Amino acid sequence: MSNKVETLTEGARSLIQRAFKIHHPVYGFSTTSTQIYDTAWVAMISKAVDGEKQWLFPESFQYLLKWQADDGSWGRHPKTKTVGILDTAAALLALFRHLKEPLQLHDESPEDIRLRIARAVQSLRIQLAAWDDILTTNHIGVEIIAPALLIYLESEDSNLVFEFQGKQMLMDMNKAKLARFDPESLYRTRPSSTVHSLEAFISKVDFDKIGHHLFRGSMLASPSSTAAYLMHASVWDDEAEAYLDHVVNLGSGNGHGGIPGTHSTAYFEFNWIIATLLRGAFRRADIECSELFGIGKIILEGFEADQGVIGFAPRAVDVDDTAKGLLTLSLLDMDEGVSPAPMVAIFEAENHFRTFGAERDPSFTSNCHVLLALLQRADRDQFLPQIKKVVSFLCQSWWDCDGLIKDKWHLSHLYPTMLLVQGFIDLIWHTEHGAFSDVFHPELLSRVSICIFQACLRTILGQNLDGSWNGQPEETSYAILTLGEAARLLLFKDLQSVLTSAIRRGSTFLQSNHWTSPDQNWTSKTAYRATFVAEAYWLAAVKVGLDPIGETALSVGHSLESPQLSKRMNGYLNTVSQTKLFSSMPFWELRASFVESMLFAPLLRAERLKVYDRDHMGISRDSYLDIIPFTWIGCNNRSRTYVATSLLFDMMILSMLGYQTDEFIEAIAAPAFAHDTVQLHELIDDIIDRNVVTHIHFTHSPIRNDISKDRDIVKVSLQRFVNHVLEHKQIRKASPEDQATLRHELRAFLHAHTTQIESNAGIMRPGRSSDGLSWHDSGRPFFDWVRTTAADHVACAYSFAFNHCLLSALIGDGKNVFPTVKENYLVRAVARHMATMCRLCNDFGSVDRDLLEGNLNSVDFPEFVNVPSVLEKKRILAELAEYERRCLFHTLQELELAATQSAKQANSIGQFNKRKVKVVRYFADVTDFYDQLYLVRDLSSTVRQDQTPEGDME
Predict the structure, then answer these.
(1) Domain range for residue 716?
(2) What is the pLDDT of residues 627-638, one digit of tens each?
(3) Does pTM top 0.90 for this prediction?
(4) DSSP letter string over 882-928?
(5) Which among 295, 368, 574, 829 is least surrounded, fewest beta carbons within 10 Å?
């Protein structure tokens, strides 16, 4: 191993030396991959030479011709449709310009150019028609660049008109952006981020008034923006030409005409290289060389030149590079005289840090970099408010994210995941070593621990069979570094062998060179790869792979370990492993989901008395709290759905309230309204119709001593329950249609409980046998009852409606989730099949308890009279439940087809239509799992017949 370590160390030192060596004193350097978009703009520059107009960089046009795909496109990317659209549109524009004016280029015939244009136009139309990630794309300036390109193209050919599904949405984004844009701002001294995208403002600004923004020949280090300036300024700028000439001949295109999207990226690459190596695996003493400190000096000079902040290049300041620069200088022990104060003053916003002055939405990774930089500082205590702000922002962003985490500067979720884990584990380490005393509330730290665990577990679950992540080297490096951090965390103590195996398999992949092309997941206007940065991640990841656990194993997280975890786990693991849904899941994965679930337990228990004071209701211990988190977490991990953590927790609370409402009705409401259920029905209607909000403080003394009248207790408790469901902050953001459905289902749920009181009173009359065969309800068929009152009685239908409201609010922009007649009909059919299945399984599991407590059960109906035994009755219930299950999953298939069809008919875009059905399937899995649990054991608490308060259930 020592030889491998030395080889990697030499490689790290060599990388540092090469980066320092290629740094140009004026133009810096860039190892970022070439981009068709910028190449196209440079290819369109013409200049009069000896009185004759010529294309200035013909090699760039040749580059475009070389890389046009057979389908006519350029730059199509597997993770974002925006890249292919912008690349194809820009290259097509260059073809039009060269067809109109071939100038000195005669190698390509006009007919060949026309054929290329025709193929490009066809491809662009196809790509625009499929552009469904407009809202989620975060490429720099897409909302101004894409509309501008379409206008430029239409001006080249009057027959070109681009109409597509997302055009109106794109233009709305464009309008909103331009409403905040003042052209006069470009004429002022202070540069803005708009300078980076001047090509989007042709004919909108006076290019003769913006030459003062040119620095070392470039417009904010953007070749495309510089090209636009050079093309449209009335006076030729030799400095800009010299810059572009350097980029063409000595840039990452190596003189072949390809142009990177940004040049220089020296500060970016220097900082990422050093911070990655020193943070990831290498000690400073191992890679020390004169070039290392030479790089540190260049970074220091950059901070000085831009008044305490830096960017990826001079004058292009941003919080990302500033924070990474601060971290790098701290790791090099060269941070004396450099403070985070200017970064805080310039980039701090109300609840997060901005990447730069004007941005459409905040960056997750930028705030991760700020956290890592501040935690590394010796003077971190001076920035406690900022640290707390960033931690809260990152935590809430993770909790609210539907699916895997996303960021505007990177297309891979593994990059922000890695940064989050690094930052939050550092935070926990500092907290456990005496820092931040009383700064962070235990609830926030609990939420932080959930973020860490989810991030690490989802990384493990995403590994391919070949050891890679998505078959890409840089993404695999991120994942390995994430799992290397996970090995430090005590929460992963039972998964150390899993971590070791995953890291080593990933490292083997990295060393095999078995990938077709390197990943290009960094985003700018399009997407790119930074070769030196990728090499740094590769070196750090392979180094971690040599010793996956390392000296710091299990050194963090002592304050997060649950002392009750190991005591409870084995029993529940055994129960869950017997269910059909989880019987084939690998044991380590099942165990990991249980660990994640237990992290929610303190948060859930903190909610248990906010609606019902169940500790004084005379019922047995609420053991269902131990299993509720897993029902949502286990199914989430099993299906890899990864719904928002906030949605998970809201549904956990709602599941708890479902059990508690059942307990409350049986223990308190039933005795209080035993002889007058009509009034209870009226009370329910009144509460829901008025939606009264009552704030009454709970005490922990017996309820009967706190409020004199039992009916007042019922009223107050039900008001509080209805308020929690209907006045939830996310529910209020849902569509009116989805809120109305929730209100309807909630009303049906509570009325069904009241009807159950009436039914129970009938069944408890003398003469009921031990087989429970004495109940009759005016000849009402079992089929009718089980699909209506009985199905309404379980919490499934209103919980399903609650989930729809969360979907509408969190990812549906407040729109009706299932808007068409067919969708609405089918989703209600889904709800009815689920609720019926749930009631049948519930009754299967509670036959004995219902007999003991005098509750109406399915087997009490006359249809079961001739069934000879309880065992046979339960077998029939199980068969009927399986029938409803088959109906459920058939209806889900129909719903998916209907949602797809309605999206096409409505000319809508976006991935919401696919996502909403996937989340519905996830909910169905949770319901199915609950039903399978009922087939194994009865989850409900028992109502004590003597109604004696049980006291502290903890």
Answers:
(1) 564-693+708-763+777-936
(2) 899 999 999 999
(3) yes
(4) HHHHHHHHHHHHHHHHHHHHHHHHTT--SSHHHHHHHHHHHHHHHHH
(5) 574
